[in-house]
Amino acid sequence: MRNKEKLVEAHVMEYESRLKHIDELIERSNKAKNLAPEHQTELSKLKRERENLSTDLEEIRKLSAEEWAKKGGPMVIWDIIAGRLERLVEHIK
C-alpha cells in the first residue's frame, strides 16, 4: 500500500512540476510583443487547456492510490500542451 501511495505522490509532484513549466512558458509568451493573431489564438487556447490541467490535478490529488491506478494519469495531454507552448515560444522569439 505504501508503495502505491508513494507512486501517486511522485506522479502528483511530476504533474505539479509540469504545470509550473507550462506556467513559465505562458508567462514568456505573455511578455512577447506584437503577437501574430494566430499566435494569440493559440495562446488563448493553451491558457484554457492549462486551466483544465489544473482542475485535473486537483482531482488527482483527491484520488486514493487504487483509484489513481485504475484511471491512470493524463501525462500525454500534459506533454502535448507543453510541446505546443514550446513551439509557440520559439515562433514568437
Work out the strand percent: under 5%
Mean pLDDT: 82
Indicate the structural class. Answer: mainly alpha
**How many β strands by DSSP?**
0
Biggest sheet architecture: none
User: What is the CA-CA span between the terminal residues?
Assistant: 48 Å
Radius of gyration: 15 Å
The number of helical segments is 4
Shape, please?
Answer: elongated
SSE series: HHHH
Helix content: over 70%
Unreliable sequence segments: none
Summarize this structure as a short list of keywords or feature phrases.
about 90 residues; mainly alpha; 4 helices; about 85% helix
Describe the structure.
By secondary structure, this protein is mainly alpha-helical. The chain has helices at residues 2-31, 37-62, 65-71, 75-92. The protein contains 4 helices and no strands. The longest helix has 30 residues, at 2-31. α1 (2-31) packs antiparallel against α2. Helix content is 87%, strand content 0%. The chain starts with a helix and ends with a helix. It is elongated. The mean pLDDT is 82.
